[in-house]
Amino acid sequence: MFTTQQAxxxxxxxxxxxFSARNELPFAAWRFRPTASxxxxxxxxxxxxxxxxxxxxxxxxSGGLVNGSDLADMLRLAPHGADAAAxxxxxxxxxxxxxxxxxxxxxxxNGWVLPLFQFELPTILLRREMGPLLAELQGxxxxxxxxxxxxxxxxxxxxxxxxxxxxxxxxxxxxxxxxERLAA
Length: 184
Known about the structure:
mainly alpha, 2 domains, two-stranded antiparallel ribbon, 10 helices, globular
């Protein structure tokens, strides 16, 4: 299995990312950084530096947060093999994931962000586990509350976090989601 750095290094020069600072980091180390457009749109809102910092911290060890534009860039640069046709238009793909609620996204003071734990690395395709979990929690939790459910210790999972448990034991994560739905 290639690391992201190895995958980028093997790409032809014309396909390598133009933003060299990110070349040094594996995809999982990318963190949410406000873009000019998200910063401009946030000017009309009350600043929430503490809330945004708390959210960034909550997701730090599960992959971090990324805005939609950066996720599309990551998707464009990621190795896809047989799935290349599925991501021929990465901006559209990210938008479809968000609008159809296949991907978890929520609004912050700096715009919309997506937690990276829900994507397979290095392909940046959605993890198969997300669909059943999001379906189970639909209508029970939404937005930031739903995103935080995945990264907070869960009593039904013996204080483990659903974002990590879902990778090795989807049934246990689904049971915790069902318990959440029934408790609501």
